[in-house]
Amino acid sequence: METVAKACSPASISEDNICRIQHLGPRDSEKIFLNRVFGANNACPEELKEVKNNILKKCGGLPLAIISMASLLANYKSPGSVDMWNRVWNSIGSQMEINPTLEGMRQIIILSYNHLPYHLKACFMYLSIFPEDYLIDKHRLLYRWIAEGLVSEKRGLTSLEVAEAYLDELLSRNVVKPGSVDYNGVTECCVHDMMLEVILSNALEENFISLVGGPCRGLSYDNIRRLSIHGYGQRAGIEGMSMQHVRSLSTFCPEGQFKLLDRLKELTLLRVLDLEGCKDVKNHHMEQILELETYTLPQNRASATGFWAC
């Protein structure tokens, strides 16, 4: 970070003008960790104290590392969980203790992600569809999870109630951050940049999503199921792309999407369509879309006749 700061600063800026953010000290690190794992009473069992100190030492005073590890271990707080804590400790790269770096931090985030339950992992990976620093409307996300088949009814709960419980758990684990909050709770959420980097890498590798624009370029687009288009000037990116298997389409480009919209009729398997903010959409673009479970249209125009917006 210091290298980046120096490169972006005028040559006249002296060393004295560079603000170096200090890592947390042992006491503050422990306070954050204990509060996240054990709550306000901070009652760490004697059996876990030694490995707790080892984990904090490897976190190197980095707040995100401490919170990620604490969130991972919050479900393992009994004295009998010492083996789990030792496995987590041994999984953290030793370089974090010596030289806390972005790569070391990334290893901790990957560890936290890998320990998510399967149902949460899929829902969390789904957030890689959205651009960096994007505030995601809560209900927009919940209905998309349901339409994608990532959430279903269980034990007397509706699919929407299950989806809300999943989001609450991701928030409690601090892998998703609250964006906006009102008297009813969280209304928007977002993903930390480094978390997004990890889940986007996994999502692309597993062909969970395909991305045009954004941080990834030059990718192969085979058997596309979920397509997300970021940024301006991506019209050429979809030309010649086979879209017959696309089941979910999202665009975060306000303008210049005529070529994409003209191809909607090809998407015979499409179930989820999100054109929020796209100013080019017209009624005739929607006429041949028959199988949609959910879709979002721009808020600054009336919905096409016979359609509704989530």
Automatic annotation (TrEMBL):
The keyword Signal does not apply. The keyword Repeat applies. GO terms for biological process: defense response to bacterium; innate immune response-activating signaling pathway; plant-type hypersensitive response. It comes from the Eukaryota. SUPFAM superfamilies: P-loop containing nucleoside triphosphate hydrolases. InterPro entries: Apaf_helical, Disease_R_plants, P-loop_NTPase, WH-like_DNA-bd_sf, WHD_DRP. Residues 129-199 form the Disease resistance protein winged helix domain. One of its GO terms (molecular function) is ADP binding. This is Disease resistance protein winged helix domain-containing protein. Keywords: Plant defense, Repeat.
